[in-house]
Amino acid sequence: MIRQLTCASPSRRQFFIGGAASTLSATALALLAGNPVFAAAKSRTDDPAADTGTLNTALALEHEGINAYTLGAQSNLLQKPALTLAMKFQNDHKVHRDRLIQVIRSLGATPVEEKALAEYAKVLDVDKLKSQSDVLNFAANLEGGAVNAYLGIIPAFQDGQLAKLAGQLAADETEHYSLLSQALGRPLPAPLSFGV
User: Fold this and answer.
1) What is this structure's pTM?
2) H or E segment at 131?
3) Which pLDDT belongs to residue 46?
């Protein structure tokens, strides 16, 4: 029986922002609290800080994803095909990270910093991972949470290009979630199952 692990809670996501929390917009904080509708409503201002705050929230989640895959690989619980898949997904998250950093800097803001690997290990509670199925479930839950986060922020952006970027990131995360679901022997997601 495959055990389901829960996604990172909003308080865990807030942990990753750390000292940057004071610079995040109401939009970003609403998104972290799991309220994308409020986030979208709050972001509809002419304040570019709202967009950069939301982008920094996305960057913090990409840092989390990169480190989660590092921790999964270091667990020595993944067999070769699963490890190869995990490393491909980690590389995708690095591309996401680099693109978000580039965009945040182009907007004149400072990208949120990555935390130490040990901090991610503690907050993500990776000591509970005891099998390959545990690691894959853990990764699938994080990817599913990322899909919903990116879908939730699309309407929040003033700039259509930033909304497009969030859509691209959501598409990648959906691919990750779907492939992890297949690896676990789960059915693929049903139509319209994300963003609810």
Assistant:
1) 0.76
2) none
3) 54
